[in-house]
Amino acid sequence: MEQLHGGDIYRNKVEYDFSVNINPLGMPKRCMEAAKKGAELSVHYPDCQCEELCGKLAQKEEVPADWIVPGNGAAELLYALCYAIRPKKGLIPVPAFLEYERALLAAGGIPEFLYLKEEEDFRLGHEILEKIQKDTDILFVCNPGNPTGTVIERELLYSIAERCRQTETVLCLDECFLPFLRREKELTMKHYLKEFPNLVICRAFTKLYAMPGLRLGYLMTSNRELSGRVKGCMQPWSVSLPAQLAGCAACEEEDYVKRAREIIEIERDYLVRELSCQLTDKIYPSEANYIFFKAGIGLKEVLLKQGILIRSCENYRNLSEEFYRIAVRPHEENRELICRWRACSMRV
What single string gives the DSSP state of each residue in 198-259? Predict the structure, then answer.
């Protein structure tokens, strides 16, 4: 299968990977230790109900434990959700994470797209409300957007949820990157899960705790009938012991998340300042731990020769080969990116 995402360091031997948006602090030490313990205990089956993990997440997210469905990364859960409801038609504002469309197609659904406008910085607006119709079985929304990093305010999200309730549409809200933002509490919709049984929130440990190789994500919904159907579409042991124990440890890492937010804000500002100095054609406003921008065609290949991997966004629907995304990394790596990029630009 074609590699559709960032992080392909196996076919691109590089020194620095800016193509995946993981926490610049790296995996917390206690999570590493927990994963090692999980490996030692892997002579046993993992708990297929993830009881301890769900309990920890319930405390962290302030929702009942039986509203939580853990899985082998957010991607598995997106597919399981589509298999569970078998949507005939799904709506996706684009550009967006590619697996929404692929999960919908895998379940036999037909995607409908709302093409966000470049002149509006690819922001989702109230026009989405008119696109949600009675035959819209599922709507995928990501906040903040991927790859743009733009934020959808809660007022609009609430209106979308209300419209989805009227049309009996499942609203899958991807909040995987939201914990990177200081404004998480004022933007999250998790406190409206009881009010909207059609709302499903997707989150993951992958990016926030820098553990993409362990594969761990979770859905939250108050709709127990729907969550039961989702579980019925998944393998019984999809979450490994190392992942479960690392996830439990991650739930205790409050200071780590606060520190990451501070570093990301400082380093994102640094990168934006440097990229604005004749390295890019346009930088789009981002509140996330990544930066979306427009630059010369072939930039990815040029930087690959310098040992740096960035994310080309040309395979995102509604984008072209002029668009790119980079993660916010530690300062030493960010400085190295700028130095090597600037050197290439000067030679050209």
Answer: TEEEEEESTTTTT-TTT--EEEE-S-HHHHHHHHHTS-TT-S-HHHHHHHHHHTT-HHHHHH
pLDDT at 345 over 80: no
Surface-to-core class of residue 98, CB atoms within 10 Å of its CB (0-12 exposed, 13-18 middle, 19+ buried):
middle
pLDDT band at 145 (very low <50, low <70, confident <90, very high): very high
pLDDT score recorded for residue 191: 96
pLDDT tens-digit readout, 70-103: 999 999 999 999 999 999 999 999 999 999 999 9
- Is it the case that residue 199 has pLDDT exceeding 80? yes
Running DSSP on this structure, what letter comes out for residue 192? G
Structure tokens at 278: 């004749």
Which bin fits 26, alpha (ψ -120 to 50), beta or left (φ > 0)? left
Q: Has residue 279 got a pLDDT over 80?
A: yes
Question: Looking at the DSSP assignment, which residues form a beta bridge with residue 69?
Answer: 219
CB atoms within 10 A of CB 228: 12
Q: What is the DSSP string of 321-338?
A: TTEEEEE---HHHHHHHH
pLDDT of 347 reads 54
Threshold 0.90, pTM exceeds = yes
Sheet with 290-294, edge to edge strand ranges:
282-283, 290-294, 323-327, 311-312
Three-state SS for 136? coil
Q: Could you tell me whether strands 282-283 and 217-220 are parallel, antiparallel, or unpaired per DSSP bridges?
A: unpaired
